[in-house]
Amino acid sequence: MKIALAQFNATVGDIDGNTARIIEMIGAAREASAHLVVFPELAVFGYPPKDLVRRKDLVARNADAVASIAASCRGVTAIVGYVEPDPAGAGKGVYNAAAVCADGAVVASYRKVLLPTYDVFDETRYFSAGAAPVVVPVATDDGPVHVGMTICEDFWNDRQFEGRRVYGVDPVKATVEAGASLLVNIGASPFVAGKQADREAIFADQVRECGVPLVSVNLVGGNDDLIFDGASFLVDSTGAVVARADAFGEELLIVETSRPKPNALRVYPDRIESIHRGLVLGLRDYVHKCGFADVVLGLSGGIDSAVTAALAVEALGADHVCGVAMPSRYSSDHSVEDARWLAENMSVRLTVIPIEDVHRAFESVVSSEFATAPDPAPGIAEENIQARIRGNLLMALSNKFGRLLLTTGNKSELAVGYCTIYGDMCGGLAVLSDVPKTTVYELARHLNVSAGRPWIPQRTIDKEPSAELRDDQRDQDSLPPYEQLDAILELYVERDLSVDEIVAGGFDRATVQRVARMVDLNEYKRQQAPTGLKVTSRAFGTGRRMPIAAKYR
Amino acid sequence: MKIALAQFNATVGDIDGNTARIIEMIGAAREASAHLVVFPELAVFGYPPKDLVRRKDLVARNADAVASIAASCRGVTAIVGYVEPDPAGAGKGVYNAAAVCADGAVVASYRKVLLPTYDVFDETRYFSAGAAPVVVPVATDDGPVHVGMTICEDFWNDRQFEGRRVYGVDPVKATVEAGASLLVNIGASPFVAGKQADREAIFADQVRECGVPLVSVNLVGGNDDLIFDGASFLVDSTGAVVARADAFGEELLIVETSRPKPNALRVYPDRIESIHRGLVLGLRDYVHKCGFADVVLGLSGGIDSAVTAALAVEALGADHVCGVAMPSRYSSDHSVEDARWLAENMSVRLTVIPIEDVHRAFESVVSSEFATAPDPAPGIAEENIQARIRGNLLMALSNKFGRLLLTTGNKSELAVGYCTIYGDMCGGLAVLSDVPKTTVYELARHLNVSAGRPWIPQRTIDKEPSAELRDDQRDQDSLPPYEQLDAILELYVERDLSVDEIVAGGFDRATVQRVARMVDLNEYKRQQAPTGLKVTSRAFGTGRRMPIAAKYR
Hints:
Two copies of one chain form a homodimer.
Chain A: E1 2-7, H1 15-31, E2 36-38, H2 56-71, E3 77-85, E4 94-102, E5 105-111, H3 123-126, E6 135-138, E7 145-151, H4 153-156, H5 171-177, E8 182-187, H6 195-210, E9 214-218, E10 220-223, E11 226-229, E12 233-235, E13 241-244, E14 251-256, H7 271-289, E15 295-298, H8 303-316, E16 321-325, H9 333-346, E17 349-352, H10 356-370, H11 380-401, E18 404-407, H12 411-416, E19 429-430, H13 437-451, H14 458-462, H15 475-478, H16 482-494, H17 499-504, H18 509-521, H19 523-526, E20 531-532
Parallel strand pairs in A: 1-2, 2-3, 7-8, 8-9, 15-16, 15-18, 16-17, 18-19, 19-20
Antiparallel strand pairs in A: 1-14, 3-4, 4-5, 6-7, 9-12, 10-11, 12-13
Helix pairs in contact in A: 1-2, 7-8, 7-13, 8-13, 10-11, 16-18
């Protein structure tokens, strides 16, 4: 049997655009004599659709689109993810469904049984759950193959989720018992560094149990905070992964299931390269899907802005990236030098706007009021003014030239609030806000190795990090060493461990308490942070929902 | 039977503080010879707990707290909402539960059956659903009363929800069939203007069906965006509401169910007064529960900042409110005059900081770059610079003096993006961000009538609204008249109608399309907006989750 894995980059809500591309890919699959072409979860509507699925007009248009896809579907069977309206409007009124299209009609529709509602997923908010397996015969040269349908979470099936069973039913088992001789899983499974190995292990494990081969087709592309990495794959009946599509790119991978070619088994990139490629894809898609071509960002001479600039240049092209250096009286000489070096190295346009005059004007207008403060000595308030002057300048350039502003802060500083709200936190997309500082360094070294030259200036990598908002300031004056900080943050934020549990792992109690307290108290900043690209198992944003006005330790 | 309705203001995560207050109120109920004292949903943990319920240490502490509450509970039966850990860690690992405490022990625990997962609610994200009714005999002077437990949504029971059945089970019916002679509902039902009438109608309707009286105890107090309005009530077996606690305040209301006193039936305030009192409560609790005593806000001389100031003075006291007027070259004379008049009228300290010098300094540093723009004529970029200078000044004062910054924008402008991100959108709490502009006017007039004097200056109410970011600017140059805008926004945002459906209601198509487009395109601003107090059926924020990088109309 010849299967086309249509690893497709859908745009949320762009029903016309998604449909046109789906019809085009069905045509290409038929041209290649595929018997079956499989699209990802909610390919017609885009994933995650969020509250757009509550819009009846959009759901109706998506249902019409499926009818038109089916009408155009001849000589090949297509499986297409869409939002299926419930005929009686029962329950939530819609299902997360897969239409089987053949001979000009929708011949079956499978409704997702397991609806993930944790981390970034809210599917019980939106969808009624299906209950019945769907197995459909697909004609091949060797007679019909009985294709059993599943959608994403149906196959994750809770066996690895936080170590406990969450669901009481097993749709994979039900589908096999209904007579499937080939399992299909259509997914929209977001990228997390290291997750592909889990995906394949969990999926293959179930294939080995039931002895039925599996085609798993994943969405690819960025939609807001989520990066879908594709890497769709085919598991033979022994549980071996015998074909794998590219990660982080659209692809129509055509595989003869009985004799998959070795070159259909692409290597999934290693951890740091997967983060690199994920961020490039997420950045490019966010900018383009928001209707922008160009970005602007502040270049401080530091590591975060340098790595963000490198990713932007790769994603959009140097002509579409504009850097701005905004030195102050506290900026070191090397700040602007390193920004210039970086911009020249990357052929990025650099604008230099010293902030001293504006800074002085601000100091002058607040001086008499500040003199009445309980503690008039310069501190956080004075530092933040500078960061917010820079935020204002960057937004002014963004507004005037129609360039989306990229935020350059990393996860470590966002976690502990070592950043200025309305200052360096300004922007439409926070490229590195789920990348811990230690990983930013790793990424910088990796980018230089990949480029085969010092793409990011070595001095930027080597120098001690500083916000340069007062004389001789260094991050390490306010924070534990980043290796220690990131290790604690991983346990506290990603794994939800308590202070006691973290201390039991060998960390200093006072440091852990201090870090946990900083994380808790800075929730208000994160709730006003720009969308950030998720690369870890728990990013700030939609996957971590914390109260602000709360008392807990 | 004598019942104490313990309408309690819980703080999320403050398990020690909540527990101490609960034990105190149990004591007061026993003093008053109550047989039963009923606390709201999740009284021990606070509602909504959000991802804090994933913290095993906090769940364990909340379970210990229930044990200590039970140990102290003698001579009266107490029903207390808490997070119940599943003994086997199955499913989500925890239940939204009600402990029945008597004679020093937890004698039963009821697990919420219907878990709301729509609007601001995410309960299937966190909780496993219960399935079994719990009916407990409570000793009274006339023998045992069989008390049947329900929690919040169990009683809403989908009959009015968006016109369709969402749940397939009916826990109220099951509880009555299990022998309840008195129904208890413990809730955390957030305030929405007009909702109390629905609550009482829906609850009473079910009482009439089953003939069993009901005690409904609701949470009170603000927790982030949600305001809980209390107004707990008692429904007799004929379906009549015979007792009602105060709205928007803590109360231990003690009622003899066989002969409730007339003064136990408080009047629920009318619509505009309910919004007024709700906002005051929400503002006060947000500020205090975040650990602040004082607030600062910009006073532009306009209606939004005037109403916000009035609410802040009522919530916190004039000594805890500081106004800042920041006139520019475009400010009318009456702007600062009206701000001064307002501040004096309310005995609020006013600081005046003209922004001209800073504004000129900004213009000077961006001039050469701006001259290269495709359209160098002054526009949005130049206007936003001024708003962001003001945002920076307000945040500087907030940081320097430890005063929480209140944001003054209304729902209409947030909906269409008629506001500056990092400018007038700066702040910790957006007091009016769910109040449409027309309701802001209504509120201003209402505040003046309530005060019996022109508390808000009449000129502020009468003058044409303007952002004053360029010469002769008026809101109505950029927006449809507010009456029309607000009517369209209610249909588009609150009721999720499509453009076609709104036009069918008699609105001009071009205007509706323009408004809908503005709403859609400004989602990026709203996702970085401060927490806002919810007063309508659909507020921006946690109850409305839209994609940004999306294409839809």
